[in-house]
Amino acid sequence: MQNSNELTNSKRDSTVAHYFWDTVIDHHSYANGGNSNFEYFSQPDDLATQLSASTSETCNTYNMLKLSNHLFGWEPDAKYMDYYENALYNHILASQHPETGMFCYYVALQSGTQKIFSSPNEFLFGVVWVLE
Known about the structure:
This protein is mainly alpha-helical.
């Protein structure tokens, strides 16, 4: 939608992109900027019951960062960059192992869970990591 709006200047596409961003941020996002549980949105504002080892999928957050950047370009409101900073530091960068550079698909938020990082030579997300 955001790219379509930039090409056509469509008011509808702009409205859809803003509505989606507001809905995800205001009703489906965790404190780290991530969203979703098992790759799904739950009921709005029901995050406390949706904590598991599979919360905060990094792909969703990455796409929300892209959308935030586009929306900020159209309308330089600090809320877009506030979210961007929070999600980048507390989710995306937190998903990478500080020593090996490997990453995790989910940043688990449930108490007692831990991050599960990819490993060298593992096929994950369509990528084979071969470290020599």
